[in-house]
Amino acid sequence: EAQVTQNPRYLITVTGKKLTVTCSQNMNHEYMSWYRQDPGLGLRQIYYSMNVEVTDKGDVPEGYKVSRKEKRNFPLILESPSPNQTSLYFCASRQGIISNQPQHFGDGTRLSIL
Amino acid sequence: AQSVAQPEDQVNVAEGNPLTVKCTYSVSGNPYLFWYVQYPNRGLQFLLKYITGDNLVKGSYGFEAEFNKSQTSFHLKKPSALVSDSALYFCAVRDGTGGYQKVTFGIGTKLQVIP
């Protein structure tokens, strides 16, 4: 089954404790992206990657890092999480770099930073 | 800069009635337009897209959307609403000119179908 898998689905942690949210897709997609969803703000893009070792900032990259060492994986790293990063996070992938294809989304990771 | 507006936070409609969820957009070049649906505790699922061609596009679950270039709108419609259509709907736009990669989402519209 074609899917985007995020882990963990839920995490409660404390300010300053480094965490990583993993994202993996099994569709051999070139393009991957991270979003955060906040009430009244919709989805905002954090980072995206057009292929292995190619990443770029989205609209709200501050406080986040990403890496793309393998095509299927695109982890989101919070080096020193803060309460304003409490949010619902989605990873997505899309076939093709310059493409009109839709994105496939994971089921989300709800992060609470205390 | 590109943007998407979904002017209604919530739309209520009776089961069996037609529904419309509104979306307007702004892009510099040619718009690629998408509708996604989000059910509770799930990620977004693709419903339909407009890239080029016929202004009326049909998608999953009986939904359709009409692209109107002069009004820069891409409203989502369905002739007869089902209770199971109750969900959060997102409109998204991408500038299809020159390989631009960024996708901008609206804030979402909650659709409530009343039995």
What overall form of chain B do the CA principal axes indicate? globular
Q: What kind of oligomer do you see?
A: heterodimer
Q: What's the story with the biggest beta sheet of chain B?
A: 6 strands, mixed
In round numbers, the mean pLDDT of chain B is 93
DSSP, total strands of chain A: 11
Order of helices and strands of chain A: EEEEEEEEEEE
Question: What portion of residues of chain A is helical?
Answer: under 10%
Structure overview:
The complex is a heterodimer of chains A (114) and B (115). Chain A has no helices and 11 strands. Chain A has 114 residues and is mainly beta. The relative contact order of chain A is 0.33. The mean pLDDT of chain A is 94. In chain B, strands 2, 5, 6, 10, 11 and 12 form a 6-stranded mixed β-sheet that branches. A 4-stranded antiparallel β-sheet of chain B has the order 3-9-8-7, with no helix packed on it. In chain B, a hairpin with a 5-residue loop joins strand 5 and strand 6. Chain B has 115 residues and is an all-beta fold. Chains A and B meet through strand 4, strand 5 and strand 10 of A and strand 5 and strand 6 of B.
Mind sketching the topology for me?
The complex is a heterodimer of chains A (114) and B (115).
Chain A: E1 4-7, E2 10-13, E3 19-25, E4 31-38, E5 42-51, E6 54-57, E7 65-66, E8 76-78, E9 87-94, E10 104-105, E11 109-113
Parallel strand pairs in A: 2-11
Antiparallel strand pairs in A: 1-3, 3-8, 4-5, 4-9, 5-6, 7-8, 9-10, 9-11
Chain B: E1 3-5, E2 10-14, E3 19-21, E4 24-26, E5 31-38, E6 44-50, E7 56-58, E8 64-68, E9 73-78, E10 87-95, E11 103-105, E12 109-114
Parallel strand pairs in B: 2-12
Antiparallel strand pairs in B: 1-4, 3-9, 5-6, 5-10, 7-8, 8-9, 10-11, 10-12
